[in-house]
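About this split. The held-out portion is used to measure sequence recovery: a designer receives only the structure tokens and must propose an amino acid at every position. Recovery is the fraction of positions where the proposal matches the reference. Here is one held-out target exactly as it appears in the evaluation file.
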């Protein structure tokens, strides 16, 4: 899941980036409202963490812009404005959640996981395609109800493909995702991870689109 952090405090932004990457979110940061509007279009996040007190504009202006053009993006307000009036105003303008500063990182992460589950699977923390089940909270994989341990980079690669089942992901796209998660990427890393994953998954679960990249069908017919 991609998360855009819109926060002008560099120390807080850095802490959020580190914490979210450790939770396997793909993270991008914007310090200004106008910058955030551009990033939203380019980065296409699933979730936005939005501060209201931005240097160049009120965060509510960013929220209004998001709701006009990207109604499906979940927005969590993270702000020092903890009074009820501001909370009600933000929720009425289309925010999905509201957390006042100072806050506990564990609570923020729990709220983000809940938002991510709603966006990914509507009512579950699991992504299931045929006999393959990926739990994005527990970070576990099961095939035919048998749990399989995955190294972190294999898990990340499979998560990207299953979250976007039906779409072809090029090698460079997969590399970019892993890089955004803070992982170092070798020249043949993607091929290596795909090869290892195929040994643990049903035949033809991950399909190669020759000359383009890799994909997983939305409905697995290999069982």
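Reference sequence for scoring:
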């Amino acid at each position: 899941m991609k998360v855009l952090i819109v926060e002008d405090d560099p120390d807080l932004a850095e802490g959020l980036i580190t914490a979210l990457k450790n939770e396997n979110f793909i993270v991008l940061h914007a310090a200004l409202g106008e910058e955030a509007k551009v990033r939203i279009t380019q980065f296409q996040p699933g979730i936005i963490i939005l501060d209201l007190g931005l240097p160049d504009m009120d965060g509510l202006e960013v929220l209004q812009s998001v709701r006009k053009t990207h109604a499906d993006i979940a927005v969590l307000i993270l702000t020092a404005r903890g009074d009820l009036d501001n909370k009600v105003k933000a929720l009425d303008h289309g925010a999905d959640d509201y957390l006042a500063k100072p806050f506990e990182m564990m609570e923020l992460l729990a709220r983000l996981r809940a938002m991510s589950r709603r966006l990914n699977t509507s009512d579950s923390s699991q992504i299931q395609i045929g006999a393959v089940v990926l739990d994005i909270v527990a970070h576990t994989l099961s095939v035919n109800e048998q749990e399989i341990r995955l190294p972190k980079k294999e898990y990340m690669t499979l998560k990207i493909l299953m979250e976007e089942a039906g779409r072809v992901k090029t090698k460079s796209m997969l590399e970019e995702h892993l890089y955004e998660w803070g992982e170092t990427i070798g020249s043949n890393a993607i091929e290596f991870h795909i090869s290892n994953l195929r040994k643990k998954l049903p035949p033809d679960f991950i399909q190669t689109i020759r000359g383009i990249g890799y994909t997983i069908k939305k409905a697995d017919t290999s069982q």
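Annotator remark: DSSP finds eight helices and twelve strands in the chain.
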